[in-house]
Please model this.
Amino acid sequence: METSLHLRSSRGRQIPLRITPSTGDDPKEDDNLYCPLALEATSWAHMNGLQMVSQTDEAFIHAPFSLLPNKISRQEFEKVKRLAPVFNTLIDRIACDRTWLLDAIEPALATDAFTARLSSIMASTPHQRVRLGLHRSDYMMDDSAEGAVFKQIELNTIASSFGCISAKVTALHQFILKRFGSDPQLGPRVSEAIKTLNLDRVQDSTDKGFDMAAHVAEECLPLNPTLRDLPAALAAAHAQYGVPGSIIVFVVQPNERNVIDQRMLEQELWTTNNVRVRRLTLAELASHRSVLSGDGSDDDDRVLTVDGEEVSVVYFRAGYTPDDYPTDAEWKAREILERSTAVKCPSLAYHLAGTKIVQQAIAQPGQLERFLDPTEAAEVRTSFVGLHLVSTESMESSSEAGLAVQEALMHPERYVLKPQREGGGNNLYGAELADRIRSGLDLEDLVLMQRIMPPIEPAWFVRQGQVQRGMSLSELGVFGTFLAADDRVVINQYAGHILRTKQDGVDEGGVATGYSVLSSPLLN
Amino acid sequence: METSLHLRSSRGRQIPLRITPSTGDDPKEDDNLYCPLALEATSWAHMNGLQMVSQTDEAFIHAPFSLLPNKISRQEFEKVKRLAPVFNTLIDRIACDRTWLLDAIEPALATDAFTARLSSIMASTPHQRVRLGLHRSDYMMDDSAEGAVFKQIELNTIASSFGCISAKVTALHQFILKRFGSDPQLGPRVSEAIKTLNLDRVQDSTDKGFDMAAHVAEECLPLNPTLRDLPAALAAAHAQYGVPGSIIVFVVQPNERNVIDQRMLEQELWTTNNVRVRRLTLAELASHRSVLSGDGSDDDDRVLTVDGEEVSVVYFRAGYTPDDYPTDAEWKAREILERSTAVKCPSLAYHLAGTKIVQQAIAQPGQLERFLDPTEAAEVRTSFVGLHLVSTESMESSSEAGLAVQEALMHPERYVLKPQREGGGNNLYGAELADRIRSGLDLEDLVLMQRIMPPIEPAWFVRQGQVQRGMSLSELGVFGTFLAADDRVVINQYAGHILRTKQDGVDEGGVATGYSVLSSPLLN
Model:
């Protein structure tokens, strides 16, 4: 019986989990008022898997998050949701038009060895009959033009992350708003924070007993179906492949910090679809494990097996940066995967369709119309930021580019001047931008881009047990899932969203580093 | 657009989450074979809230757990499940028989100031009409007698912990067995581990294609309803109290490390029952926040409000140790809570019914029969460890005590000699035990107790990213929930379980310290 003493939990020698106001350079005096609410939120985060691996050590920490959701235009949110299947279609049609795709990439090949190698593998592998996309289109609100509109920052066709974990952020915000909105202790903080957002629909409500936060949660916080729809797309591709007992391979980086986001996909595939996932790095796939059947004479018969198990779907959360290919072994692995009959998410054609050079090409006049019907093309174009190739000619002409150059000389703050090639030098702003254009030197190397002027909103950043109020700007990611077999489209839909919020005036970025935090859109 | 660079996650500068074999004194060579399985398990733990606050810093870590469940006799498990409502009844009847209860405590009052103060508050407060118990009865398997049987270690009537988190451990073990049991890579580890348990029902199965681990998960891993039944009991008491909008107060220690276990209760109460919980320490309750209505003249009207909100239920996860009452303020708070009409879980009578002195009293011949019908009393008694008051008389007599003393002299390894009073000296074993009895000095102060000889089984301990095989002994906690209003019993049931597993030969204990780990029973 004496052992019982040792089996009981040791009580009373416990240390606190603090939530403290930030000790940064400019802590706001009222930050500590938000500590109790932040403690509720971080407890929720730890209980519900809103986690990532810390940058400074190997421990899991709560993912950095915004204590409350951030305001977004309802109309613009609906528009970019509507655009998700259109971008899915666009990517698929580009990928199926290899000639156009290779032509679009061609200008980059001389200077961009990474893209060149990807495209040479694609050119030597067969067209993909079954095509799966889990894309994420990123937008920022631009306040500079007539009425705020979402402008596309980039379109991710490989390793689109933060999907599953964003469903948890939405659930956290639901919890904060509904549980604490009318709480006598913490409710005033929630109401105060919501009021600073100046939402149109709750401005006038002064009714007693009206639970503003619950109303906001019901009416303004959209459902976020990532945790259902992203794994569902992978499962549908697995079913399309049609071999019972085959596995899905997640190609991962060796030291992934955002691992829970990936593990949630894996868990859903197992619990909902009974599909097993193996996580492997490109190096692991290269080391004698991955085998293609057949002798190469019949492209349709190159079944991929890993350690003897047939692979239905290869889902890439790695392989998008040259850093992921330190040796030829990783390249060999990518080639084996691409040459197999497994469904790739993405295929090389999808991967390449998401590169900057292709996105520049598609933005040129008439190109969207090649792939989309005119209405769709017009709506997509409204999301493109103005982008003009500068030239000596455009300096003088009344072309669109010419007009933009003239406006940039008058209002250089509305533009950024970028080198056309990756690694071709620094971006130029303001007076430097105007001087460079006026100099007339090497103008053909330059792209004049409209600068996005995002609205700046207050936010409460919660990072590793610290809460800090600050002004923020946000980027919305919209997920789309697409599955097609030959000409038959099986899935083409919006699949959820993620809002990332960054402190204004901080140059650093990235959720994993804690400079950006995960948030949800609050529709106005 | 340039801000997009900063909003993307920083990729490629990530560090590993390792799972390593233990670096302890005696690492087994094959421990590293279990690292991949342990990595799957810790990832699951972080994703699904199997967490606690670390002892060494303020970070959340995964709770220490056993990689696989531990073998327990099915028959004995069913017996202690059956005993849960019987112990619930026993506690309630003791608490309702104040005269007997105060008599039973009386011998401790002179030397135990803490129990004395609790009982004096109880004596001055009214009998509780509505009585709520969330009890946990702890057992260890005793291999020493004829056939292994569960013997009760203690009966916790206050702050019974690890209930909710144990449901997560069961879910983890379900996942490990079903997902990896037939996995080509990790399956052999799971099978090997199960085989070391020597389960009767899977000894003979050598069928090809027979998924032993899935079979074991289906047949031998019992459902664990804590996460449903513990909050349901609190919610039922709240409903019984019957005031819409009232809150439940969790009385907590200031620096709780097992906070997620409590938060899960809180989350279930909110999401399932829409009941709000406030967490407060006794000190916080004391500091001008807690108010009783009425002037004390009418005991039925002493409504408890905290910061103006009426309290339906007070659930204690603190207050069971003198350390929780550093000043008179905490005592005052306990008294206010006890004198209110809020439902206490537990009331002071329930709290005191769970003390060691009362459990010794109830073990005396004829006492169980006072409160239970003969069949129930007999079954409860089989779970009691042999406990005899030593005296000069018992040395010579053929009474039960006398026979035990004679057996102890012949087989001292089967007994432990304990001082009757708390803090009365060290326990004696072996030769020292026999010498002391033979000396005949101050025998009236001593209790001779049967020693529990638990079976020692292999286990894989997973603590903070380290996996280590070792021999283990386990303690089963069985939860029971009880709610009565006057003579009407509303709830009286088994409500789940927790197995804690401790490395054999390690003196230290406690889950929070990592010496014990959380596990699940595997029924044989």
Observations:
- The first helix of chain B runs from residue 4 to 7.
- The radius of gyration of chain B is 25 Å.
- Chain B touches chain A through 89 residues (CB under 8 Å).
- The domain at 386-450 of chain B is CATH 3.30.1490.50 (Dna Ligase; domain 1).
